[in-house]
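As a representative case, we now present a protein record of this kind.
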Amino acid sequence: MPIDDTDMKLLKLLKENARTPYSKLARELGISESAVRKRIARLVKTGVIKKMTIEYELENEIKAVILVKTQPPIPVPEVSKNIKKIAGVDIVYEVTGEYDIITVVRASGVDMINKFIDEIRSIPGVVSTYTMVVLRTWV
């Protein structure tokens, strides 16, 4: 599906704040409110917009990035699906490079981060992990 400049601007505005009223989006884009509704519906229907979500940060919450290395015969997508099932896993990316999967987790403490690491390491196909604690987020 072709994406034009208006679609790209709309996606950028929604990424900044998915709760922006359609009327404000229409003003910012210079199109009608009904055109905004139709564009969003089309972007959702075609799978460009996967979901509308929020970003949050809780006081005393720890966020960590866990890099995961896998090994055949277990396929990477199967390992990813098993990681995504773990409560507290925020997002899972399959990537190229030395590691096959990047996992972002949220926890109330380091002991919980260790629990995530242990759970991930127990998944068949996982050979190693490398963990980094997030110190600061810039959005």
Notes: The chain has five helices and four strands. Residues 62-133 form a domain with the Alpha-Beta Plaits fold (CATH 3.30.70.920).
